[in-house]
Amino acid sequence: MSIKILIFSIIKGGDCIKDNLVNRIGSSLKDLRKHQKISQKKLAENICAQSYISMIEKGEISPAAHILYSISVKLGVDISYFFDAYDNNMYANMTEFVFQVRNATERNNFEEVKSLLISQRENPYYKTDKMNNFFKYHFALCNYYLNNDKEEAIKGLQETLTKSSQNSEAFLQEDFNALLSIAVIYTQEKEWREASFYYSQVENLFKKRPRLTEPRQGIRFYYNYCRYLYSVEKYSEVSTNANKGIRLCVELKTYYLHGELYYYKGLSCFKKKHEQDGIEALNNAKLIFTLSNQQNHIKLVEQILFKHI
């Protein structure tokens, strides 16, 4: 079932679907809480008022998404635990939408990103803090890459950064994305001081949470950091960080930015007059680009190798 058809059927079902969902969430929460022998008061600590938990369990209110997420974390279950097969279908479609947007972003197809965002912007089931940040983050990228509006893009990205009181893993991941995107924009604008500041922020966050739920975030950091370091002629640091990124690619068994990391390692080796190391790195880059069928990248590497062989 397509996203549009599913959303239409949910909205058309109206209050009946919503009431059934609220009752199921309340019933599932009560059963799980009692099974784990946790009182309402204990469960509510640092999340919400005890009375709020009571109203959820009685089916009197629909819990806010961020509260339900915090409850699921405390009880040690995935948030999808509280939904039956029908609602998991809705959740799966939301996941598919997020995947499509991120996939288009990785391909730098911001026209597609914008189109996807606009198509779901008014979807009432996406009105959560996390999804609001998701939309704001990607609209900010569109502002820069489609409208060439650096100021509005950075403003939008900064608005997605969490407050100091929010320290959940999910929010830290979004901070990582926003800070890295700001650093990339400043790099492309050749505003090196600002870029350096934001890369240091990203690096600190990465050290704080090295095992992010989205592992490729680390690869993106090392790749973009290498691009910045190469631009400011810190060639030894390029090699160091490229090697870290390459190790992460190997660990994750992915070609994602793997060849690009070898490419910048090779360029930095040539700058340091380490010809053989540079040739080896570029040959590795060429191999990975061949395996991942990136023809334009292969031609670029071959042109550089021709000058050094």
Short description:
The protein is mainly alpha-helical and 309 residues long. The protein has helices spanning 3-13, 15-35, 40-44, 50-57, 65-75, 85-106, 110-120, 129-145, 150-159, 169-188, 192-208, 216-231, 235-252, 258-271, 275-291, 295-308.
Shape: elongated
Class inferred from helices and paired strands: mainly alpha
Largest sheet: none
Cα gyration radius (Å) = 23 Å
- Quick one: CATH class of the domain at 215-309? Mainly Alpha
Percent strand equals under 5%
Uncertain regions spanning at least 5 consecutive residues: 1-17, 164-168
User: Helical content, roughly?
Assistant: over 70%
CATH superfamily of the domain at 215-309: Tetratricopeptide repeat domain
Quaternary organisation: single chain
Q: What is the average per-residue confidence, as pLDDT, rounded to a whole number?
A: 84
| CATH architecture verdict of the domain at 215-309 | Alpha Horseshoe
Number of E strands: 0
Q: Tell me the span between the first and last alpha carbons.
A: 55 Å
SSE arrangement, N to C: HHHHHHHHHHHHHHHH
What's the number of helices?
16
Question: Might you state the CATH topology name of the domain at 215-309?
Answer: Serine Threonine Protein Phosphatase 5, Tetratricopeptide repeat
